[in-house]
Amino acid sequence: MGFRHKTMNRKKCLYEQHRIVASRAQYLKEIKRFRSEGRPIIYLDETWLNQHHTVTKCWTDYDGKGGLKIPSGKGKRLIILHAGCEQGWIDGAELIFVGKRDSGDYHNEMNILHFMEWFREKLLPNCPPRSVIVLDNAKYHNAVVEKIPTKSSRKQDMLDWLAKHKIRHEKKMLKAELYFLIWATNPVSVYQTDVFAQEKGHCCLRLPVGHCELNPIELAWAQVKGYAARKNTGISGFTMENILQLAREGMLEVTPDRWAGCVEHVREKVEKHYWEVDGLRDDLVERMVIEVGHGDTSSSESEVTVSDTESD
Q1: CA dihedral in degrees (256, 89, 97, 47; nearest 10)?
Q2: Residue 34 scores a pLDDT above 70
Q3: Is 68 strand, coil or helix?
């Protein structure tokens, strides 16, 4: 039957990684402080809509006949980038374009050049004064002004970085020695989005890794995609022109009142939940795992590690 008689392992407990808890706590404190200062909070993110995006259920007869005649495959893909706040969508910040067919992940459709052009020319000029722009940790959101050498960097790159920052070193040093000098300076990455935002009197605030549920725009996108699915019935044909029109109509359906509801839900439900849970965790957990992995930041699940612990 697949059972074995064996010595039992120690009790296993599930722990969130210390770095994740710390970054979440920092984010919650920062956004609370910005709100207390009366600064506008702007949330941005991108989503997608497939050409054949529609409902998954419909009325049909007992023989399974009738219903929607959906073409095979998903069709072409629309990539939508926008931003909003408690007062609604940011006027003039909409960006919609057709993605590539050969990409399996809509994140691959966006690149640094597209995002930075949109950020500088369509978002920043339309943000209220002294805005706080909330964004996630996607690579194209976080292009660095200057790349900090890592352990795997070329030796010449390490030498150039040390020379640029006028840190004493010798060319005959080993890579390990050079990296130690870099690490000892505790360098902090400077992102292009932060620089551009500061030039206009704004600032950026990054979500904790894997916490898209803290971004109200995710709820707005769910409403847009739900509207498009209900209306994309094939009457006008499953065309790109039709799904584009439905995407724009769906965004109009997310009125300022609905946007305010999305923000209130995140603030009063999700953020308060984490404040309470993390407060309890500080009292109960004495040991946490520090090692953190790197993966897709769009997931709503926090990174966790299973660690063996002794029972009390």
Answers
A1: -70
A2: yes
A3: coil
> Whose CA is closest to 79, among 49, 52, 124?
49
Structure tokens at 135: 């964004």
pLDDT digits (tens, 9 = 90+) for 194-233: 999 999 999 999 999 989 999 999 999 999 999 998 888 7
Among residues 98, 108, 77, 55, which one has the least CA distance to residue 226?
55
Token duo for residue 177: 């020695």
Measured CA to CA, the distance from residue 300 to residue 20 in angstroms comes to 13
pLDDT for the residue numbered 286: 44
Task: Give the tokens for residue 28.
Answer: 């919650």
Both tokens assigned to 86:
């408690």
- Mean pLDDT (the chain, rounded): 83
Query: What value does the CA radius of gyration of the chain take, rounded to a whole number of Å?
Result: 24
pLDDT at 291: 44
Are the C-beta atoms of 98 and 78 separated by less than 8 Å? Answer: yes
CA distance 63 to 174: 74
| Spatial separation of the C-alpha atoms in residues 117 and 77, rounded to whole Å | 21
**For 37, which DSSP code?**
T
What are all long-range contacts of 85-88, with beta carbons under 8 Å and residues at least 24 apart? 85/40, 85/41, 85/42, 85/43, 85/128, 85/259, 85/263, 86/41, 86/256, 86/259, 86/260, 86/263, 87/256, 87/259, 87/260, 88/254, 88/255, 88/256, 88/259
